[in-house]
Design brief:
Strand content: 15-25%
CATH class of the largest domain: Mainly Beta
CATH architecture of the largest domain: 3 Solenoid
Oligomer: single chain
Structural class: alpha/beta
Number of strands: 10
InterPro entries: 5peptide_repeat, Pentapeptide-BTB/POZ_domain
Length: 238
């Protein structure tokens, strides 16, 4: 059975390789309606820009370097698999749940992230700049956002747990009143970030330097963290 024939017999499609199928035909078939369930399918490098997948379920599918610019996955469920280097710019990911997905170096520039959930995902180097500030209420739990781009991100009041933000770009981000528990901030760029009321007592601040006090101005730190800051300034803590 060909890839397109599998879609015609949908909405459940399993173990189908779409990499040599006509991208336009695949896009039209998937947008045609039906609550799609794709399992272990390979859509590597397909241009599916503008596709409307609605509340589809994607289980352990390979979508490496797939183009989903302006796509609609409103209420979709994505479990496992890869979206590494995928282009999700301006995509509507409202209510989408990503669990255990590899989103390394994925582009989510301008994506609509209303009530979007990322759980235990690999998001190393993901680009989340240009998020729509009025529709950014996504949550992140247990994910690696090392080297991710979150410059000027609106994260005020967020609760982040088990998130690795090592070497991530959070310059200019609004982290006021945020709570970071078991999070890594090693080498994170927090220049010009707003940290008033941010609770960093449960975070790994990485190397403390003489510049750290100015960077963390307004944040809440533990006694031990404060002692490390004092030592970095050459003060004796007794």
């Amino acid at each position: 059975m060909s890839a397109l024939s599998a879609l015609e017999h949908g909405p459940e499609v399993t173990d189908v390789d779409f990499t040599h199928a006509d991208p336009e035909a695949v896009r039209e078939a998937l947008t045609g309606g039906g609550q799609w369930v794709l399992r272990r399918c390979d859509l590597t490098e397909l241009d599916l820009s503008g596709v409307d997948l609605g509340t589809a379920t994607l289980e352990r599918c390979t979508l490496t370097r797939v183009r989903l610019r302006g796509a609609v996955l409103d209420g979709a469920t994505v479990e496992g698999g890869s979206l590494a280097e995928a282009d999700l710019s301006d995509a509507d990911l409202t209510d989408t749940i990503f669990t255990g997905v590899d989103l390394s170096r994925a582009r989510l520039v301008g994506a609509r992230l209303t009530d979007t959930v990322f759980r235990d995902c690999r998001m190393i180097g993901a680009d989340l700049t240009g998020m729509r500030s009025l529709a950014v209420t996504f949550s992140v739990d247990g994910c690696s956002l090392a080297l991710a781009r979150l410059a000027d991100a609106a994260l005020r009041g967020w609760r982040l747990e088990r998130v690795d933000l090592s070497d991530a770009d959070l310059s200019g981000a609004d982290l006021r009143d945020a709570v970071l528990t078991d999070c890594a901030l090693r080498g994170t760029d927090l220049s010009h970030a707003r940290l008033g009321g941010a609770d960093l007592r449960g975070a790994d601040l990485g190397e403390i330097t003489p510049e750290t006090p100015a960077v963390l101005r307004g944040a809440i730190v533990s006694t031990a963290q404060a002692a490390d800051v004092c030592r970095a300034l050459g003060l004796q803590v007794v």
